[in-house]
Design goal:
By secondary structure, the protein is mainly β. The protein has two domains: 50-155, Immunoglobulins (Immunoglobulin-like), CATH 2.60.40; 158-270, Immunoglobulin-like, CATH 2.60.40. The protein has one helix spanning 15-32; strands at 50-54, 58-60, 64-72, 86-94, 102-104, 107-109, 116-121, 127-139, 142-155, 158-166, 175-181, 184-191, 199-206, 214-221, 229-230, 237-244, 260-270. Strand 11 (175-181) and strand 12 (184-191) form a beta hairpin.
Length: 283
């Protein structure tokens, strides 16, 4: 018989033994295809949270204006863009004087792809404020946020005013009046039905941080009514010019001082009449 085989015995002490044990542990985890204890398995990362606020950057004093909030991304949105969690927003205001200024609602959740809607109500003071929005994306126990700021200037607006008068021959259905500044449309006023011998006070506020020095012209137009409603003589528009002087050179911030552009009393000739009452059926 041959000599028996003797298995060698390796005795390790101190740091060498610890290194061998660590090497064996790492090797066993690699063989199993798993991470060592304490290492979190990472899946595909979610898109970053981002959002925006859309609306006018200038509003007139004493007005209420609508703004729209958009938000997406974060854990609530999967890699293919579908919403699997909750997207919400909170809005608050910052500025020198917030007395009489508010935003409503001040928080809500997004519904599908529809934007959030807020209404900014401002006081009759001129200043610059900021709408601050925090957008939160949540899924299970994971949250991510993004902050969006939107500056708004509150100014005294230019005011376009006219009195529309209907004669005794007809009453009108509702119609639209287009307001133009220097030939470019800037807004529309919806005029309600006016009875015969009735009148309507048309007012339009135009908010801006300033017009260039020189002459400017506001025009109210009935051109979109296709001749159904006209001014005397068949005119479809009236204009009023005014002059803007430049700000003094030492102004650090030019805040617009509004001006009333008054067209006076404008008579309307009407061919667009209210529906006539049907005659009673004969017995």
């Amino acid at each position: 018989m041959g000599d028996p085989e003797v298995e060698p015995v390796v005795s390790l002490r101190g740091p060498a033994r610890a290194l061998l044990l660590v090497a064996l542990l790492v090797g066993s985890f690699a063989a199993l295809g798993t991470a060592p204890p304490g290492a979190a398995a990472t899946g595909p990362s979610s898109p970053p949270v981002h959002g925006s606020v859309n609306g006018p950057s200038v509003v007139g004093t004493g007005t209420t204006t609508t703004f729209y909030i958009n938000g997406t991304g974060g854990p609530a949105v999967s890699s293919n863009g579908s919403v699997i969690g909750t997207l919400s927003w909170k809005a608050k205001l910052s500025g020198p004087v917030l007395t009489g200024i508010s935003v409503s609602p001040n928080s809500s959740t997004f519904s599908g792809s529809a934007p959030g809607v807020i209404h900014l109500k401002v006081a009759k003071i001129t200043e610059s404020i900021t709408i601050n929005v925090e957008i939160t994306s949540s899924y299970l126990s994971t949250n991510a946020t993004a902050n969006v700021s939107y500056p708004v200037a509150i100014v005294v607006p230019y005011v376009v005013h006219a009195i529309l008068v209907v004669g005794s021959g007809h009453s009108t259905l509702g119609f639209d009046v287009t307001v133009e500044l220097d030939g470019a449309p800037v807004g529309t006023v919806s005029v309600p039905p006016i009875a015969a011998n009735g009148s309507y006070n048309l007012t339009y506020d135009y908010a801006t941080t300033g017009l260039s020095p020189g002459e400017h012209t506001f025009t109210i137009s009935l051109a979109n009514e296709h001749g159904l409603v006209t001014f005397p003589g068949g005119a479809v528009q009236y204009s009023q010019s005014f002059y803007v002087v430049g700000p003094p050179p030492d102004y650090t911030l030019y805040v617009l001082v509004g001006i009333v552009v008054f067209f006076g009393v404008l008579f309307i000739l009407v061919t667009r009449v209210a529906a006539r009452r049907r005659p009673a059926a004969r017995k």
